[in-house]
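re: ur question from the group chat, yeah i did fold both. here u go
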Amino acid sequence: MALMITDECINCDVCEPECPNGAISMGPEIYQIDPAKCTECVGHYDEPQCRQVCPVECIPFDPAWQEAPEQLLAKYHQLQAEAQTGVAGANAGERTDAATLGGVGAGTTAAPQAGRAIDVQG
């Protein structure tokens, strides 16, 4: 089950930096938790860190987003893999290397300069 932040939130800013998955962000009026990124700190800590530091105890479990511990651990592993490969937020199959982003990668040809292409392979 993911966590949620209720209207009792006082925007004290202590929960956001505690989230190891970056699931907490400022919403239109109060902080919010992205359930797709919330693992209840499974894989990182024994207890949800945001709940530990919240001074008004406004972070209950979200009954609309129920997940078993095994599912939370699988989500943790997926988020870690995305963080290591840099594909978080990228479309499936989309390349995010230097060549795709406009840089020059190995085996690519740079933009023409003075009417000629430069082969960067050597």
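okk and heres the other one u asked abt
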Amino acid sequence: MKILIINNFNSENRLGGVEHYLYELIQYAEKNNSDYIFKWFGKENMKTNWVEKFYHKTITQEIIQEIESFQPDIIHCFSIGAPITPHFMKFAKSKGIPIVYSFRDYYYICPKNYMLNDKNEVLHKHESALECILHHQPKRNILFDTLLYSKQSYHKSIIKKHIDYFLTPSENLTQFVSIHFQKEGKTLANPILIEQNQNSKTEENYILFVGRLVPEKGALTLLKTFQNISKSFPNEQLWIVGDGNQSEELQDFAENNELKNVLFLGNKSREELQVIYANSKFSVVPSEYLEAYGNVILESLAFGKTVITSNLVGIKDEIEKNNVGLTYSYQNPKELEDKMIELITNSSLKSELENNIPNYLATKTFSKHFEDLVSVYEDLLIKNR
């Protein structure tokens, strides 16, 4: 079976979790199963004007040529919208090729993607264009937000018309997509994308944050919380791994408040990250927008390290159900502080959470994920005959 993967960015631009996942997916297929041949179509991290954001004619023609030459049995779309627009789908359907769409975030529910209104309330439905443009976060300006909504709505209508099946990593996102797209689909949770070492017994005095340094990831809230904690626990350290447009602001805050036990490490390779995870005390994921899943949580757990996460990550219910970490309300930094102190001081609780990790991760192997994924492909081909 031949599967054409279509994603905004190519394998040379592993900018985020989607690209890392696709790289691992293709590597796994090549090493373990020759019956499934994947080909990844994506572009470089390129700038586009607003006309191209609505319809990129050149790239659409490139994809059509790729479909004709590769002759896929299935097309599997991931993050598309710019620079890749969904107009190729009409051609694919004319050839009778089933299309699977993996929704990895809330963009095609709300183009602002945070799923928060200007009162910091989580959105439980999304119906009004005017409400979205004027009151959903983040807000730029009326013109930009109107164009963004128009683009998303236009692309959404094309996707809704042409896809055969959808996948999402969390039940909450699955419910939204089912309502908005009225298509058959299911939840297929993310697998572990980093080599596991659950037997890591080493532990240093640092708490870990891994992620993009942008406001919605909550690193500033974590810094302010850690500022309070360090007064009572001066030996504790906070290591921050990642980069982004908030990096300078975060470092200025740490310097201005004399937080000498906060280390900014920048971006790290997968190999370097493995060492950092293995020696950490626990990880904190203080997201302040509705995340579809939360891969860094799985990465921390892969090294036997428990986590504290806000209640906005898609994996929250799994964390609570399997008792492998702690959660807190994202608008309550005092609760975050209490949870962090609890893990610092309560070794028996920390051990209990860590002891539950292996059974939970047994359900997150790439082999199990791959088996579930290709069963979707096989079922679609049978229905399409």
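fwiw on the second one: The chain has 16 helices and twelve strands. The CA atoms of residues 286 and 329 lie 10 Å apart. idk if thats what u expected
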